[in-house]
Specification:
- α4 runs antiparallel to α5.
- The N and C termini lie far apart (88 Å).
- The chain has 180 residues and is an all-alpha fold.
- The chain contains 9 helices and no strands.
- It is 84% helix and 0% strand.
- This is Tetratricopeptide repeat protein.
């Protein structure tokens, strides 16, 4: 009984240590301290090697350090652990573009878009891959799709403040027309 308590406590400690290292790595990554973040993710992966998110963040740090081949290996490990990890498919596509493997990049972007068709950044990277493959018409369609996704939030932001006014005017218009 005492032995099982010690084992579970060790597991709890490992989980907490993993979480601290992963979170610290994320903070460092966000702040642009890629080498330091990489160390945290490597330590976290050593503790819990089946956590796709640490592999993903490690790949992100490596990509930011321009070690694209290593980053690619990390994204592929993420996809072994979680084949539906949309961000890993998208980032894999980006890294493949840097490695000048455009056909594979296109395939990876297409896979990412299956999981999230509203990811404008992936549409852009898909366009880049198509452009590099000299498929210009398709590339511009991808760029246009990305712009369409981005335009909607901008329009909503522009019209959001005046929306209550428009609604009030719409209610008053029938009253104005009746008065004529």
């Amino acid at each position: 009984m005492l032995m099982s308590h010690q084992i579970s406590q060790t597991g709890v400690d490992q989980t907490e240590t993993y979480q601290v290292l992963h979170n610290q790595g994320c903070l460092l990554l966000s702040a642009g301290y890629y080498e330091e973040a990489l160390i945290c993710f490597e330590q976290a992966i050593t503790i819990m090697p089946n956590q796709a998110e640490s592999w993903y963040r490690r790949g992100e740090a490596l990509a930011n350090l321009t070690d694209y081949k290593s980053a690619l290996l990390n994204f592929e490990q993420v996809l072994v652990l979680d084949p539906q990890h949309q961000q890993a498919w998208a980032f894999r596509g980006t890294v493949l573009i840097f490695l000048e493997r455009y056909t594979e990049a296109l395939s990876s972007c297409d896979r990412a878009l299956l999981f999230n068709p509203k990811d404008s950044e992936t549409w852009v990277m898909r366009g880049v891959a198509l452009h590099r493959l000299n498929r210009y018409k398709e590339a511009f369609k991808s760029y246009d799709r990305a712009l369409g996704i981005e335009r909607k939030p901008i329009l909503e932001q522009l019209f959001q403040p005046i929306l209550p006014l428009v609604k009030r005017l719409r209610r008053q218009i029938p009253a104005i027309q009746l008065a004529r």
